[in-house]
Amino acid sequence: MFELSEDHEEFRGLVREFAEGEIAPHVEQWDQDSHFPEDLVPQMGELGLFGLNAPEEFGGAGTEHGGFTYTCLAIEELGRIDQSIGITLSAGVGLGINPILSFGTQEQKETYLPDLLAGRALAGFGLTEPDAGSDAGASRTKARLEDGHWVVDGSKAFITNSGTSLTSVVTVTAKTGETDDGRPEISAIMIPAGTDGFVVEPAYRKLGWHISDTHGLTFEGCRVPEDNLLGERGEGFRQFLKTLDDGRVAISALAVGCAQRMLEECTAYSQQRQAFGRPIAVNQGVSFQISDLAVMVEAARLLTYKAAWLKDEQEAGRRGVAEVKQAAAIAKLYSTEAAVSATRIATQVFGGNGFMEEYPVARFYRDAKILEIGEGTSEVQRMVIARGLGLPAR
Predict the structure, then answer these.
(1) Angle at CA of residue 85, ends 81 and 88, nearest 5°
(2) Domain ranges, residue 220
(3) Where is the Acyl-CoA dehydrogenase/oxidase C-terminal domain positioned along the sequence (predicted)?
(4) CA angle 67, 54, 316 (to 5 degrees)
């Protein structure tokens, strides 16, 4: 059965020290200013955080020293300090690097991966559209071949790491034709930053994740070489499903970091805050809620790291895709809903102070809700789980 090794825990400590030293002192101001700290990305790269799943050939940690579980540990620890920084790593690896690593040609990998793995660059993944989220078949972005180039027209919404000065490329899904049975043919195409016709829209005004870089993208007659196709033509739908399966476990780790921080904040605050001459922790109405938090954290962490372990086992050829897919959906569903509940409980424990931005629980409360939406909503996770149980589809 899975368990975290001494090396895993040592690595966790390394990332925690970095997060508490380099992020925690600044995060309140960054959040207030909606400032994305670009200089932090190379620092994360120097720690090797972007290359934990990648081979040494391109500057990654290699199979002997890396693995998906290490990446989840890093995301959890960054997310414990700030969810925006955690998603920067999660999206940078899961949505930016992994599609190139999994489906790219040798030339594509050699072109992009060294800088991405070192934290000198970021990549995005454009799937969601204003009128098409989980239903990728409803995508209106189109690409046609013309004189050896793909010409892309359309738009994407809510794309992470897409508008920074470090952004080197965004992979987008687009309709490139129809299949034999009349369904949309979806392909993935890599569009380098700065390409003519590639327009990065102004940053969103968001409820949470204020530090994270998020933009809408527009493509107007955007031309890229035919060789910028990522993987096989018509395989974009399958590619994005695999990408989301991996990303769901990463989001689960981010949720664990959120819930863990709420447990720590509530435990400390309830012993300091006095009411009627005694700490509020002596009241069962408070201590029972904090006990529930502890249960949520423990369950979410076990589900998440079981799924991460299964993913590593799958990469080693010892587990099947279906088992990992089911574990990822279960972990994502439970952990993200637990994180949202944890921030609600924490805000209640803090009382009026929980509504004040000077306390971190307010920021985590704002940040948590998106966890139930991104990388597949809770409803989608329930659908995946039901199918994994063999229940009939609608």
Answers:
(1) 155
(2) 125-233
(3) 234-389
(4) 50
Q: Among 33, 232, 200, which residue's Cα sits nearest to residue 126?
A: 200
Question: Domain check: are 224 and 204 in the same one?
Answer: yes
Select which of 129, 185, 375, 379 is catalytic: 375
pLDDT class of 243 with cuts at 50, 70, 90: confident
Distances in whole angstroms, Cα of residue 234 to Cα of each of 187, 218, 335: 5, 22, 33
Whether the CB-CB separation of 253 and 72 falls below 8 Å is answered with yes
Residues 100 and 54: their CA atoms lie apart, in Å, by: 11
Tokens of 272: 């300091």
Residue 172: CB partners within 8 Å, gap ≥ 6? 125, 126, 127, 141, 152, 154, 156, 188, 189, 191, 217, 219
Locate 360 and state its tokens: 């971190």
Note the pLDDT tens digit of each residue in 315-326. Answer: 889 999 999 999
Amino acid at 158: F
Q: Are 347 and 355 in contact (CB under 8 A)?
A: yes
**Which residues lie closer than 8 Å to 278 by C-beta, 6 or more apart?**
none
Domain annotation covers residue 20: yes
Q: Is the domain of 45 the same as that of 107? A: yes
Contact in structure between 211 and 31 (CB atoms under 8 Å): yes
Q: Model confidence over 12-67: pLDDT tens digits?
A: 999 999 999 999 999 999 999 999 999 999 999 999 999 999 999 999 998 666 68
Count of domains for the chain: 3
Verify whether residue 220 is a known catalytic residue: no
Q: Do residues 53 and 98 lie in contact, with contact meaning Cβ atoms separated by under 8 Å?
A: yes
φ, ψ for residue 152, nearest 5 deg = -105, 130
